[in-house]
Structure formats: C-alpha cells, structure tokens
Design brief:
Layout: H1 3-15, H2 18-25, H3 29-43, E1 48-49, E2 55-56, H4 58-82, E3 88-94, H5 96-100, H6 105-111, E4 116-122, H7 128-134, E5 139-142, E6 151-165, H8 167-172, E7 174-175, E8 178-179, E9 186-188, E10 213-215, H9 219-227, E11 233-236, H10 237-246, E12 250-251, E13 257-266, H11 271-287
Parallel strand pairs: 3-4, 3-5, 9-10
Antiparallel strand pairs: 1-2, 5-13, 6-11, 6-12, 6-13, 7-8
Helix pairs in contact: 1-2, 1-3, 1-4, 2-3, 6-11
Length: 290
C-alpha cells in the first residue's frame, strides 16, 4: 500500500473532513479524494464514511490503525537517522477526571523529550477503548481490564469518587432525618457519564422517577457547580479534599465509588510509546489509590 495514501486517510480521520485534510497536507481537496479512491480501489472496500465529521468504516479502522503506527515508527526512525529529535505524534484517549487530577505530571515528562507532540482525546473512561479499537489513538486510560486485540494492559490503580454537596443543599432535602436522594438536584458530566449513572447505588432501594439533572461537561466546572449549590455529585477525592477542608461542601455519606483504572496501548516496539507508558504509570502511582 502506498504510504502517502495511508497518511492521507489518517489526516481525513484526524481533521474530520476531506477539506481539513487538504489544508493539513497542503494539497487540493480533489487530490485528497483521488488518494482515498485509489486506496479504496486497491483494498476493494469503502474506507471513509462521508459524514460530518468523516469517520472510518470497519475496513478503514484497520488501515487507520496501521497508518498511525507507521507515522509513529517513521518519526522515531527519522529522529535516529538525523541524530536529533523529530516531531513524534502521540495520541491518547483519557477521561476528564484523570486529566484534571493525577495525569498532569505526564506533561512534564513528555515536555522533557523535546520533540514529541501529545494529542489528547477526551472521553468517558468506559468509552475510551472505542477510540483505541478504531485506531484513533495509540493508548487509552480506561476502566476496562480486558485488552483490545493487539494491545497490552497495565493496571494503574483506583480512582475514588465521593458524594458531596453544599450544607445548604443537603439540609434542604432532609426529610425526617433522612436525605431524599431521588429529589435532590444532581449533576452529570455528559450523556456518557457511566460513573454518575451509578450514583444511587446503595443509596436508594428500587427505581426512581424523573430526576432534576444539570449537565456540566467540564471537570473544573463540575466541581464549581457543586461548590455553588447547583446540585450534588460524585467528585474525585483529590478535587473534593480542598472544598471539604474549607467547609464549602460536606460528605453526604460514607459510600465512596472506587473505579479500577488501566492503561491500554498498542503492542508495538516503539521507544516513545514505552516511555509514554512509563510516564503514565509513574503519574498513576503518585496520584491514584493502589
């Protein structure tokens, strides 16, 4: 297969459109289309769904993964031959809570390499593996222990979430000395917030009716919304600790939610990917529970 055609396919998926790929590659949109058609003709399969954004078909996902691996190895080879660091593309999937708590030391490590670039794809920890399967990323922070085909798994530790709210909000929903969990306003990060969907486990017996839910799709904004009384929510203990210490919020109960976290990465002989894995593991050791 023509490496240029594979690189073009990868650019379409990363940029989300044929037009975006043409700008990234400094070629015309028609040239992008011709390259993809040539690749599709060669494999006998449609590789790109012409949607907004453009996505890879099942056959296209296989080639996107191959193209991303090739891009990484080419960058590393170029660095070795030139005797200097080249731009090494490292694309990973991560959930918002990890990004805002234990993950930032990875930035320091990657920055020290000089020539690497880091692209983060934000997704709920229950869904990051879909990006890995599609070839969109080369590694993912996930809650899934079973490895994706062609990948290896490293256990990172456990992330603990605490149920917190302002004292005023808690007091407003106390009925006969008991908290009315079902009636109290609650926060969600987004529609794929699997963790928050478990928020009533062990707190309410049986199903509940329609709840008063506010959506705040920002890790920083989520904590701030809790602090200002918009609703109660499950917050990582490292984010909750300062607010608890200041008395701005209180623990609603003693039922934390612990989520085991894992790092899944391609099984690929890549020095950059190995170093990235070491950096992720080291950050997790410092920032997560064992």
């Amino acid at each position: 297969m023509n490496p240029i055609h594979l690189d073009t396919l990868l650019s379409i998926i990363d940029e989300g459109s044929f037009e975006g790929a043409s700008l990234a590659l400094s070629i015309s949109p028609s040239a992008v289309s011709q390259r993809v058609k040539a690749l599709e003709h060669q494999v006998g399969r449609v590789l790109v769904s012409r949607t907004q954004p453009a996505t890879a078909t099942e056959a296209g996902e296989v080639l996107v993964q191959a193209a991303r691996k090739m891009a990484l190895l080419q960058a590393e080879t170029k660095a070795q031959l030139s005797g200097r660091l080249a731009e090494i593309p490292l694309t990973i999937a991560i959930n918002a809570d990890s990004l805002s708590t234990w993950f930032p030391p990875v930035f320091n490590e990657v920055a020290s390499w000089g020539g690497a670039t880091l692209t983060l794809r934000l997704e709920d920890e229950a869904h990051t593996l879909s990006l890995l399967r599609r070839g969109d990323v080369l590694g993912a922070v996930t809650r899934e222990a079973n490895p994706v085909a062609g990948c290896e798994v490293v256990e990172l530790g456990t992330m603990r979430h605490l149920a917190i709210a302002t004292p005023t909000l808690r007091d407003a929903y106390m009925v006969d000395g008991k908290l009315d969990w079902a009636a109290m306003p609650v926060l969600r990060f987004g529609p794929k917030d699997v963790l928050q969907d478990r928020d009533l486990d062990g707190r309410v017996d049986g199903p509940v009716g329609r709840r008063r839910v506010s959506i705040v799709p920002s890790a920083e904004g989520f904590g701030e919304a809790i602090r200002r009384g918009l609703g109660w929510g499950l917050l990582p203990e490292t984010q909750a600790a300062p607010m608890l210490k200041a008395g701005e919020v209180i623990l609603l109960d003693e039922i934390p939610i612990d989520t085991p976290m894992y790092w899944q990465r391609w099984r690929l002989e890549s020095r950059s990917l190995a170093r990235l894995t070491d950096a992720v593991v080291d950050a997790a050791i410092e920032g997560l529970r064992p």
